[in-house]
C-alpha cells in the first residue's frame, strides 16, 4: 500500500495534472488536452497498480482468488445487479443523512474535483474523457486496490467486519483534501459489504462508478 500510494496514487492520481501542466504549459488551457491527459494518467496508475499487484502477489496467488469480476448470472442469489442497486441506494441515503446532519451539500460530502467539473461543460470530447476517467477508470483502480486486495488480504488475518472497517478507513484517508471523510468511510463500508456479500468486484465497481457519475453530473447541473 505504501508503494502504491507513493509510487502511483499520489504522483499520478492526485498530482498528475500538475505534472502535465509543468511539462506542457502551452497546452494547459486546452480542455480536451486536460481531459485526455487525465484519462492517460488514470490508465498509467491502473497499469502500474496491476503490475505491482501481480509482481508482489504471485507467490500468494492461491490466497487471492477473490479478484473475481463477473457480469454473468446477474439476477441470481447474491449477484451483482440486486446487490449493486441496494448498495447504491444505501450510499445515497448515507450521503443525504450526512448532508442533513452536517448542513453540507451533496457535493461537499463527496466533492467532484473542480479540475474535472470544469472540463465536463467545455467540449463533448472533454466531457466524455472526464466521465471515463472519473466514473470508470478511477472506480476500477480503487475497487481493485481497496476491496480486491486490501480487504481480501486483511480478511485472511482478521475477522471480516474489522477488515471492512480498516480498508474503508484507508479508502477514506486516501482522498487527501476531500471533505466529508466520515461519509467516505461509510461509503467504503458499504462497498466492502457489497463485495463481501457477493464475492464479486463487479458489485462494488458498479456502485462506485454510478455514485461518481451522480456526483459529477450534479456538480455540473447544480
TrEMBL record:
Source species, domain of life: Eukaryota
InterPro entries reported in the protein's UniProt record: Rce1/LyrA-like_dom (IPR003675)
Pfam families per the UniProt record, alphabetical: Rce1-like
Parts of the chain that traverse the membrane: 6-24, 80-101, 121-141, 162-195
Every CAAX prenyl protease 2/Lysostaphin resistance protein A-like domain range: 129-214
Full protein name: CAAX prenyl protease 2/Lysostaphin resistance protein A-like domain-containing protein
PANTHER family linked: CAAX AMINO TERMINAL PROTEASE (PTHR43592), CAAX AMINO TERMINAL PROTEASE FAMILY PROTEIN (PTHR43592:SF4)
Alphabetic keyword roster: Membrane, Transmembrane, Transmembrane helix
